[in-house]
Design goal:
alpha+beta, Butyryl-CoA Dehydrogenase, subunit A, domain 3, 50% helix, 3 domains, 11 helices, four-stranded antiparallel sheet
């Protein structure tokens, strides 16, 4: 690993442990996510400490994926850490996408405010299931866009839009006669109306997850991201790194949960000895050590594939399944080791359990990724036996 990445990761870890963790009991961390007031207060401290948006270097270049991993893992040691240092989804993925696809003018208008941590963003893709809209299958997208002079007019409904409430930058996906399209939009906009913020199992993302109506939204043609009909191609550019960065951040959270559970087991006595000395407890924590190491190696392997120039679609699916399932096992064991304390809000272990459970669905549920991998096995078999 590079010296620069190790140095950045060490600074981020120190900041999260010393400055961010004390905020975990702040009442501004609500069931629908931390308030923007809390986020900006933490970011001001991160800016002063020189750890804001640490994966983007001062010259605008980006750490490679292996370097990003050790930084984002450290940022995830607190559920508030990625927000404080500006490595949180969806902003981190949106910054990556705009940086790869956006024009110089679009970067100046939309990207700079995200990199500086002044604004939050939202990615408007998924749609209501009860209306047959797009979810894990993006080809089901119903939101439409049509060209009207030098503007595009967008209509549709979106669901589970993370951070829509309070975001200032949006990336909206819609379908033209050419296919999927992406648009950069300023928020709030009266044509984008939040019907309600959903009650969900997780609580770490500002603005929560919203049900949104888009009613005759007019977007200048200059704000289309890339070209009409190329939206799914651009989504693939964002998708693999975004899947992997989720793995990175939540691995950090699981590491912290393991620290808390291990400390509890080494201090708490029952049936005449410390919990750690009971084989059942000790074995659970030992299994967590194994899973944590495997997660780190899986992330590093997938990151190296992306750094090699591949889209990493297959590898990121494998990593997402392996890591999300392992992190859930880790969080579940931590809750079990801690008993009543594990299901209370007295530590973040209960929150980590909830967040990681949601991660098994976000960016594609396990079953969709396995199905995709099975299709590859079938294709490869067909090629090997052709003729």
């Amino acid at each position: 690993m590079t010296e620069r990445a190790c140095a950045i990761a060490a600074k981020v870890e120190a900041f999260v442990r010393e400055t961010v963790i004390p905020y975990e009991k702040d009442p501004r961390a609500t069931p629908h996510g931390p308030t923007d007031d809390l986020v900006q207060e933490m970011r001001a401290k991160a800016r002063a400490a020189g750890v804001l948006t640490p994966h983007v270097l001062p010259d605008g270049s980006h750490l490679d994926q292996r370097e990003t991993a050790i930084v984002l893992i450290r940022s995830g040691l607190s559920p508030l850490g990625p927000l404080a240092v500006n490595t949180m989804a969806p902003d981190e993925g949106n910054m990556y996408l705009i940086g790869k696809v956006g024009s110089p003018e679009q970067k100046a208008r939309f990207l700079d405010q995200l990199v500086s941590g002044e604004s939050r963003s939202a990615f408007f893709m998924t749609e209501p299931a009860d209306e047959g809209g797009a979810g894990s299958d993006p080809s089901m997208m119903q939101t439409s866009c049509r060209l009207d002079g030098n503007h595009w007019v967008i209509n549709g409904r979106k669901a589970f839009i993370t951070g829509a409430a309070g975001a200032e930058v949006g990336i909206v996906m819609a379908k033209s006669q050419d296919g999927a399209c992406m648009f950069l939009v300023d928020l709030p906009d009266p044509a984008i109306r939040i019907e309600r913020v959903l009650d969900t199992i997780d609580s770490s993302m500002p603005g929560g997850h919203s049900l949104v109506v888009i009613d005759n939204l007019r977007v200048p043609a200059s704000q289309m991201l890339g070209a009409s009909g190329e939206g799914f191609k651009y989504a693939q550019i964002r998708l693999s790194p975004a899947r992997l960065s989720h793995c990175m951040r939540w691995l950090g959270a699981a590491i912290r949960a393991q620290e808390i559970a291990s400390d509890y087991a080494c201090r708490r006595e029952a049936f005449g000895k410390k919990l750690i000395d009971h084989e059942g407890v000790g074995f659970m924590l030992a299994e967590n050590m194994i899973d944590l190491q495997q997660c780190e190696l899986m992330i590093d392997w997938c990151a190296s594939v992306l750094d090699g120039g591949s889209l990493g679609t297959v590898e990121s699916s494998m990593a997402k399944v392996a890591v999300s399932e392992a992190l859930f096992r880790i969080a579940d064991r931590c809750v079990q080791v801690m008993g009543g304390m594990g299901v209370s809000g007295d530590t973040i272990v209960e929150q980590v359990f909830r967040e990681v459970r949601a991660f098994r669905i976000y960016d594609g549920p396990t079953e969709v990724h396995k199905w995709s991998l099975a299709k590859k096995i079938k294709r490869d078999h067909g090629k090997a036996h052709a003729g």
